[in-house]
Amino acid sequence: MKKNLLTAALAVALSFAAHAATIVAPGTSEDSVNKSLTVGAGTAVKDVETVNGSIDVQDGAQAAEVSTVNGSIDVGNDVTLVTLETVNGSIDVGSGLKASGDVETVNGRIGIGPGSTVAGSVSTVNGRVTLDQVTVTTNVETVNGGLNFKNARIGGNVEMVNGRAELLDGTVVGGDLVVHKPKGGWSWGNKTKPPVVVIGAGSEVRGRLLIENDETKVYVHENARVGAVEGVQATRYSGANAPE
Asked: Cys bridge to 170: 36, 99, 110, 202, which one at CB 3.0-4.6 A?
């Protein structure tokens, strides 16, 4: 019995060891399969890649491509890098990010903090995108999850399918805001709630509001500015909150 317990304990210990975070050495790249990776505060590294594990990029660090397949990515404050990419996991970023490429996931949310700049695009399929005082040079996209922007600057288009999009506190979109019509089979037999788009006070969409899903509800504050609205009738509102 004692031998069996010792064997089981050893197996658990080895499992934890296999998944323990590896510190990426300064000036190097790290390519792993079953380990979580950490880029230490103030450290400059090259590419950081894993398959089954999370990645933690701490305050003031610098990196090139940061990617995983099955795991989340957490980024501290004042980090400089090229890209952030995962497939099954969320991406949470503090303030002052400088990304010269894309930030993207498939199954997970994306949240980026104040004073950050993304020179590429920000995209997810199943997850919400939250941008607080963030500049994105090109496009922001999600399919299922919605969008929440506060005082953000989006150079290209904003695109979504399902969920609620809120452009608040002086957010500016340089291109179009597009709500695509769901493709057949995406509802999995359950009728989803109609999308909602809110353009808050002081916010602006310089392109069109192109609404392909005619069930979408669009609310535009009386102090907001938008281009042509195509596909549905927008409702003007006043006060702090949209009608829905």
From this structure: 202
**Which residue(s) pair with 130 in the sheet?**
111, 148
Q: Which one-letter DSSP state was computed for residue 17?
A: H
> Does the pLDDT of residue 15 top 50, yes or no?
no
What does R_g of the chain's alpha carbons equal in angstroms? Answer: 21
Count of the separate structural domains present in the chain: 1
How many CA atoms, within 13 angstroms, populate the side-chain half-sphere of residue 5?
A: 2
Per-residue exposure over 68-103, b if at least 16 CB sit within 10 Å of its own CB, e if not: bbebbbbbbbbbbbbbbbbbebbbbbbbbbebebbb
> What does the alpha-carbon distance between residue 176 and residue 165 come to, in Å, rounded to a whole number?
13
Comparing C-alpha atoms, which of 146, 139, 148 is closest to residue 113? 148
76 contacts: CB under 8 Å, gap ≥ 6: 41, 57, 58, 59, 60, 61, 94
Domain that holds residue 60: 2-237
Residue 6 confidence (pLDDT) above 80: no
Question: Quick check: 117 pLDDT over 90?
Answer: yes
Assigned domain for 242 exists:
no
pLDDT of residue 13: 40
> Which residues are paired to 44 by β-bridges?
62
What is residue 191's predicted lDDT score, i.e. its pLDDT?
Answer: 65
- Evaluate whether 17 touches 36 at the Cβ level (below 8 Å): no
Q: Which two tokens stand for residue 55?
A: 């990645």
CB-based contact 126:106 (threshold 8 Å): yes
What three-state secondary structure class fits 184? coil
What is the per-residue pLDDT across 146-190, written as a single tens digit (0 to 9) for each?
999 999 999 999 999 999 999 999 999 999 999 999 886 444 455
Q: What is the pLDDT of residues 200-216, one digit of tens each?
A: 999 999 999 999 999 99
